[in-house]
Each structure stands twice: as structure tokens, then as C-alpha cells.
Specification:
Helix content is 43%, strand content 14%. It is α/β, with parallel strands linked by helices and 604 residues long. It has 21 helices and 15 strands. The strands form 3 sheets. A 6-stranded mixed β-sheet has the order 5-4-3-2-1-10. A 5-stranded parallel β-sheet has the order 13-12-11-14-15. A 4-stranded mixed β-sheet has the order 6-7-8-9.
């Protein structure tokens, strides 16, 4: 295991039934090829040394002897190799024959017996093989810094597979040797079952199958890098997994050896795993549309519940013409429609200031017109200039006080209008901004319900585009322009041509990078070194390594120093597996320091 990744392979070779020497030749040849690719464990199908369809030959002396001799050849092959092999063979013992799997590493084999022997439909295994004794539990094996277990074909299909006990005993990757026949719908059913078992066991699952008549084609193999670090995080984070292991721990071996720390190598290539640069945004168009629809449903349901619970039929939203306020407005409109409330109860307020551009101002007004809500325009420049005079601030100094005074003035207007109208203020800030603290404390950081708090910036852009695809032409065109507008708080004056000058991503960094950092920091608790390594793979060709490092340092520093803002977050709905609410998702003292995280980046 390197960098927390465990490289595995599953092979479906062309098998010569009952020709052990030929089968072992194939196994060794392809194991050597995979060893050169850095594979650490490769699994071959059930009874791969002899072939699955030997029938009554399984009870012949020669076949059984040759099978063991073939295993000895494989042991000899592994003595000076890094790769481990898992192969299948029949073994005569205790006056009967068992269908076995052998894990072979450095010349040593660990053999397990198939637990459940099928004898129904097309399967007739009980004629040749006996099941493992009822009190026999499979061993958990430590190899390459990872705990692994094995089960054979039918073992996966029973009500309580051996892999459950193996996982509770510490196995992090399960290898299954199968020889299932191909029937209509069976492949999809098998894939679903494997995914469910992997999720249930919080373990990687590697499956090799030869097919009913054995493989009739040339060798087929698949290689993958399994993220062991992510699996270990999920096991630690899920209290019920440990509870289940303690409850059933007597049924499986107890582990006492702590696996060694995974070596780290920045040059280690993830040849067999693709790192998605946008973990919050599905790359498949159908999946993305489904995600957008689901998020829409969650947000509308959450806001509906809040309005109903407090008996409120009016809402106030600051409309800037940017992405966040656009999504908040669209969700509020959908909510009012679902509840049967008149859209006039939504009061959209545009508050032009020193940095407001014609583009965002026009889009804000057009959206409100198209959606049929109550429109108000309240310029803030005069009030803010008076405030500058009151506190003795030079308006030519465009510092934090200059910017934040505008944000707080807008929030004051929204809150006071909400009081006048017996309404609630719908917050517009998103999860990415909350993570970075890119909001004004007691300004846009505050609202009466933060509808976007669980949605990252990269996903908001996709959701607004999804809304545009369903909207009438005029609104669709406006939403499309909102999506293509540079992200900006517009708190400093525009450039000489009236275009946005203050671009957020120039100041705080690209949101696609920060959302990537956020996902892996919160979802898996990864170290900054590992996040940097993943980002190098995910954004290869898009960002130079020094750019990724610069913005990762920014993320670490801001995430820690801005926790005090998250501690005072208003309520908002949780949308996905990553959340930052201090009440339910992320609890961290505001005086925590990023020093250790930043030092690790310094050491790279």
C-alpha cells in the first residue's frame, strides 16, 4: 500500500479444463505481468488451477495431486516477488475434498475452505465437495499493510456471508473467487450484490469469475487502486460498525497487530484510479440532473417545513444577480408554489452599491419580474457614506471596513424589512463560502434561514443551469447569464468599462479547488499531504502543482481561522454527505490552530 492506496487485480483467464500445468503457466505468466504494474494482490477465479467444470475428475488421485503440485509452483514463483496471488483449487483432507482458496505470498500459502456448497438448479457441487466445518472461521491476513479476507462464490450469496465476519474481524478488502454461469440479468444482480456487500462491510470487494463453461476468450483482467485510507476513515467515523464488531467479535479472529503506516510517495501514479476533480458534481449528465432534482426537493421540503412550523407566509431575499441569491430565490419561489402561497409574499430587494454593475443589476431585476415576486430597490451608497463619516473612515480606502460596511448595511435592510413585513430573511451564502469564511460576520453571514448552507458553489452553478433548462425563454436566458457571470461580492467599484473588477476566485482561489479540498477534508478526514496528492492527480494539466499548493494552504488557514463564523451560523438544511453546521455536522473549537496542517505542507 502506498499513499493509502492498495493496488489489486482480478483475472479471468482462459482455462484448460483438467490441465493443471497449462493453467498454472497462465496464472504465473499474468501474475508476472501484473507484478510489473505494481499490483499487490491478484485474485483468480474459483478452482482456477484445475478448472471449475472437472466434474467427477475432482475425485481422481492424479488431478488432486497435480493441483497441489501446481500450488507449489505458484509458491515458488512468489518467493522473490512483491505480488500476492489468490488462486482456487481442490484439496483432499479429512477423508473428503474441499473447494479451497489459497493466498500465496513469499512462498507461503494460507488456505481457506468454501463455507457454503450449492446443490440446486445448475449447481451440483455437493457431489464432489464438502462444506467447511460449522465452527471454522476464515483467517484475516495482513499483507502490504492491509488486512484482507477471502470467500468463495456461493459464500457471497447466502444470508450472512463470511465476509461480514471477516470485516468485523478487521478485513479491509475481501477477495471472492467465483465461477458463476451467465444468465439473463445475473450480471446486474451480481454487481448490485457486490456493491451492497462492500457498502455493508465498509470494505473493498474484489471479484473474479470464470463463467459456466470456463473462459472461452483470452485473459481478461481488471486492475484498481483501492482507497484504504477512505475505508478506514468510514469505519472509525461509523460508531455502529465498531458496535457490530464488538457484538459479533467472538465469531471471528481478533486482531492485535496494528498495520504499519502507509509509505508516501508523491511520484506514485494512480494509473488504475481516476480522481474526480468535482466530487460534488456528477460527471454523467443523467446523474447530474437527478442530483439537481434531489437537491431541489430537499431544499424546498426544508423551507416548506420551516415556514409552516413558524406560521410564516412571507420571505425577504437580497437579490444581487449572482449565483447564490439566484438559487435562494428559485427555491423560495418553488416553496411558495408548493405551499400554495402567493408569490407576491416573496419580497426581493436589490441593493445597488459602489461595486454594482449593470449586468448583475439588470439580471436581478429581470429574474424578479419573470418570477412574479414583489420587487424593491433600496440603494445603499448614501447610507454607507454617512456611516463612513460617522466612524471616520476614508471612502477612498477600500479595505475590510469599506467592504464589510456595505454587507452589514444590506443585512440591516433585509432584517428590518422582514420585521416590517412579518417575514423571514432567506440567507444566500453557500457551503463553500462558509468553509472559507468568505462572508461578513454579522453581515451576509447572518439570516433567519440559510437555505444554501449545505450546497457547495460548484454544485450551485449546475443547479441554476438545470433550472434554466426548464424555464421559459426569458428567464432561461437570464439564468444562463447569471451562470456565466464572474463570482463577485461587488463591494469595490467596477473597472473603467463598468465590468466586474473584484473577482472572488482571483482573491480567495478557484472554487473547484476549494470544493475538492473541502470534500476530502470533511468527508474523509484526509491530511493536507494526501489532499495535495489527490489534487495533483485530479487537476493534472489544469493547475500547476505550485498553484494547487498555494490555494491548499489558503484553504487550511482560512478553514481554521474562520470557524468562529460557522459557530454562529443560522439554521439551514443538510443536503449531502458533507455539512458544516456546528449543531450536527462539524464541531470544532474556534481557537483550533492550523499550524500542524500547514507544517505538513511545508514538509512536502
Amino acid at each position: 500500500m502506498t499513499n493509502g492506496f492498495f493496488r489489486v487485480a482480478a483475472v479471468a483467464p482462459h482455462v484448460r479444463v483438467a490441465d493443471v500445468d497449462a493453467n498454472v503457466d497462465v496464472i504465473i505468466r499474468y501474475a508476472a505481468e501484473l507484478d510489473a504494474k505494481g499490483v499487490e494482490v491478484v485474485v483468480f477465479p474459483e478452482l482456477s488451477i484445475t478448472g471449475y467444470t472437472c466434474g467427477d475428475l475432482f475425485h481422481t488421485e492424479l488431478l488432486l495431486q497435480k493441483a497441489l503440485a501446481g500450488l507449489r509452483r505458484i509458491e515458488d514463483f512468489t518467493r522473490d516477488k512483491t505480488i500476492d496471488l489468490i488462486v482456487g483449487l481442490p484439496v483432499a483432507s479429512e477423508g473428503t475434498v474441499f473447494n479451497c482458496a489459497a493466498h500465496v505470498s513469499k512462498g507461503v500459502s494460507t488456505i481457506i475452505r468454501k463455507t457454503y456448497i450449492p446443490n440446486y438448479n445448475e449447481f451440483y457441487e455437493r457431489r464432489w465437495f464438502a462444506p467447511a466445518p460449522n465452527d471454522e472461521y476464515q483467517p484475516v491476513i495482513l499483507t502490504h499493510g492491509v488486512y484482507i479476507g477471502m470467500e468463495i462464490c456461493e459464500d457471497l450469496w447466502v444470508t450472512v456471508p463470511p465476509s461480514c465476519s471477516l470485516a468485523m474481524a478487521g478485513a479491509e478488502v475481501i477477495f471472492n473467487l467465483s465461477a458463476s454461469d451467465e444468465l439473463v440479468g445475473k450480471h446486474a444482480s451480481s454487481l448490485t450484490l457486490i456493491r451492497q456487500q462492500s457498502a455493508r462491510c465498509k470494505a473493498g470487494y474484489v471479484y473474479a469469475s470464470a463463467g459456466r463453461g470456463e473462459s472461452s476468450s483470452d485473459v481478461v483482467f481488471s486492475v484498481a487502486d483501492i482507497d484504504i485510507a477512505a475505508l478506514r476513515h468510514d469505519r472509525i467515523h461509523s460508531s455502529t460498525f465498531a458496535d457490530c464488531a464488538r457484538r459479533h467479535g467472538r465469531q471471528a479472529p481478533r486482531l492485535t497487530e496494528i498495520p504499519p503506516e502507509s509509505p508516501f510517495d508523491m511520484d506514485y501514479g494512480l494509473t488504475y484510479r481516476t480522481i474526480d476533480p468535482h466530487p460534488f458534481v456528477p460527471s454523467d449528465p443523467t446523474s447530474l440532473a437527478d442530483t439537481c432534482e434531489e437537491v431541489d426537493h430537499i431544499l424546498v421540503t426544508a423551507l416548506s417545513q420551516r415556514l409552516t412550523a413558524i406560521g410564516c407566509r412571507r420571505a425577504v431575499i437580497g437579490i444581487s444577480g449572482g449565483l447564490d441569491s439566484t438559487l435562494a430565490l428559485l427555491i423560495t419561489v418553488r416553496t411558495f408554489d408548493r405551499l400554495g402561497y402567493d408569490r407576491s409574499g416573496i419580497i426581493g430587494i436589490t441593493m445597488p452599491g459602489f461595486g454594482t454593475t449593470d449586468r448583475t443589476y439588470t439580471n436581478a431585476l429581470e429574474m424578479m419580474r419573470c418570477l412574479g415576486i414583489t420587487m424593491r430597490e433600496i440603494p445603499i451608497s448614501t447610507a454607507v457614506m454617512q456611516h463612513f463619516a460617522d466612524i471616520g473612515h476614508d471612502p477612498q480606502v477600500h479595505d475590510a471596513a469599506y467592504e464589510n460596511a456595505q454587507a452589514r448595511e444590506r443585512t440591516q435592510i433585509l432584517m428590518d424589512v422582514a420585521n416590517q413585513e412579518e417575514a423571514i430573511v432567506i440567507g444566500t451564502g453557500d457551503m463553500s463560502e462558509i468553509a472559507l469564511g468568505w462572508c461578513t460576520y454579522n453581515g451576509d453571514q447572518m439570516s433567519m434561514y440559510s437555505i444554501n448552507a449545505g450546497v457547495p458553489k460548484t454544485l450551485i452553478r449546475s443547479i441554476v443551469s438545470w433550472f434554466a433548462s426548464q424555464a421559459e425563454p426569458k428567464l432561461a436566458a437570464t439564468l444562463a447569464d447569471v451562470v456565466s457571470t464572474p463570482i463577485s461580492p461587488e463591494l469595490t467599484p467596477a473597472d473603467s468599462e463598468g465590468a466586474i473588477k473584484q473577482k472572488t476566485e482571483d482573491l480567495v482561489g478557484p472554487y473547484e479547488l476549494h470544493d475538492f479540498f473541502l470534500f476530502y477534508f470533511i468527508r474523509f478526514g484526509f491530511s493536507p499531504r494526501r489532499i495535495y496528492y489527490l489534487a495533483l492527480n485530479a487537476f493534472r494539466g489544469a493547475y500547476a502543482p505550485e498553484v494547487i499548493m498555494h490555494w491548499l494552504r489558503t484553504f487550511c488557514r482560512r478553514f481554521f481561522t474562520q470557524q468562529f463564523k460557522r459557530q454562529a451560523m443560522p439554521d439551514g438544511p443538510k443536503v449531502g454527505s458533507v455539512g458544516l453546521s456546528p449543531r450536527g455536522d462539524w464541531r470544532m473549537p474556534s481557537d483550533s490552530t492550523a499550524a500542524m496542517w500547514l507544517r505538513q505542507l511545508d514538509e512536502i
